[in-house]
Design goal:
CATH class of the largest domain: Mainly Beta
Structural class: mainly beta
Number of domains: 2
Oligomer: single chain
Largest sheet: 9 strands, antiparallel
Number of helices: 1
Helix content: under 10%
Order of helices and strands: HEEEEEEEEEEEEEEEEE
Number of strands: 17
CATH architecture of the largest domain: Distorted Sandwich
């Protein structure tokens, strides 16, 4: 017994020591890791602070979607949408309903928004992806006429990356320009060119045709012409849920050059929930003429948020309020930091107004 007791004490001491080391190695709760990429300052290069940080490296498996685990609520519930057309200011244009019904996931895939660069080819995303289930009905986002329905856009091409797709020209436009919406990767198409659709009418079903790694709806908004380079961010066109709002920002370096694919954190003050967003890639996308944004995140419950950016390893943040049914806006300019508030009011002769 005298021999066994010291041995037991020694084992207990070793276990206690190991547990202490493991606990000390843990990241403190609630802390965010420094986002990557961040560029360290080069003391031998005085121009380094004003240079644009390099874009992030492509993921090792660029064709695999990895949904963030803490970016979106686990519930598919959203409040009812504001009635369309919803335009709380002269410069807003929430004219479109969601193309997926409320009983399905009908908000954008959080890590591949408009302007995102996900695939190894580096091609910039010209729409949003809504990860509804295979076969879910796809609905017309507004009244309009089918101008294309088939494989690809305006051509019968089974090799088209859009797969089975439908294009609507809407009965209304904006800034005296026609407005189009694109619905791609469908499994079935239920309409034909020339057919008129009311808002909410079924035009097809969610699928995985074309270049895709799984079922979802690829949705685009095109203004002026139905061309690849005429897209705008759908999150500034789709009506938000009642009591929720939208955040838009213009993220620049100290010299006012836009920062492409740059990482931004949006943190809810009440719950601590964190969204990670990246600014637009540098090609094939367009900013709204008023907001001149390169970042948008919709479906944010109204309330106070912290917007956080690590600029060359320097932590910058500001508090911003998301208002119900409205676009909250900020600018960021490198080491000069944040400037919350709306963009400058355009000249009255250039003010944006909906076309009939």
């Amino acid at each position: 017994m005298k021999t066994i007791l010291p041995l037991l004490l020694a084992v207990l001491l070793l276990a206690s020591s190991a547990c202490g080391r493991a606990a000390g190695d843990e990241t403190p709760a609630g802390e965010l890791p420094t986002p990557s990429p961040t560029a360290a300052l080069d003391p031998g290069n005085p121009l380094a602070p004003d240079q644009t940080p390099p874009p992030p490296a492509a993921p090792a498996d660029a064709l695999r979607f990895e949904l963030p685990t803490a970016m979106e609520p686990i519930s598919a519930w959203r409040p009812p949408l504001y009635p369309v057309p919803w335009a709380p200011s002269p410069y807003d244009h929430f004219y479109l309903e969601r193309p997926i019904a409320a009983d399905e996931v009908n908000w954008p895939l959080p890590n591949y928004r408009y302007g995102g660069v996900f695939f190894s080819s580096g091609q910039v995303h010209t729409g949003i992806d809504i990860p509804a289930e295979y076969g879910a009905p796809v609905l017309a986002a507004g009244p309009g006429t089918v101008v294309s329905a088939g494989w690809g856009l305006f051509e019968d091409n089974p090799a088209s990356p859009y797969g089975r797709a439908v294009v609507l020209r809407h009965d209304f436009g904006y800034q005296n320009q026609p407005l189009f919406t694109v619905y791609a990767h469908l499994s079935e198409i239920d309409v034909i060119p020339g057919q008129w659709l009311a808002t909410g009418e079924v035009l097809g079903n969610v699928g995985d045709s074309g270049h895709t790694t799984g079922p979802h709806l690829h949705f685009e908004v095109r203004l002026g012409s139905d061309q690849f380079f005429s897209t705008y961010n759908p999150e500034l066109w789709l009506s938000p849920p009642q009591g929720w709002g939208v955040l838009a920002g213009r993220v620049m370096d100290t010299n006012r050059n836009l920062l492409a694919t740059y990482q931004v954190f949006v943190i809810a003050a009440d719950s601590g929930q964190t969204w990670e967003v990246r600014t637009y890639g540098s090609e094939a996308v367009n900013s709204d003429p008023y907001y001149r944004e390169n970042l948008v995140i919709s479906d944010l419950p109204a309330g106070l948020y912290t917007v956080r950016i690590f600029y060359y390893g320097v932590r910058k943040e500001t508090e911003i309020e998301i208002l119900p049914g409205r676009v909250s806006y900020f600018t960021f300019q490198g080491y000069l930091g944040f400037a919350p508030g709306p963009p400058p009011t355009p000249d009255p002769l250039e003010a944006l107004s909906p076309a009939p």
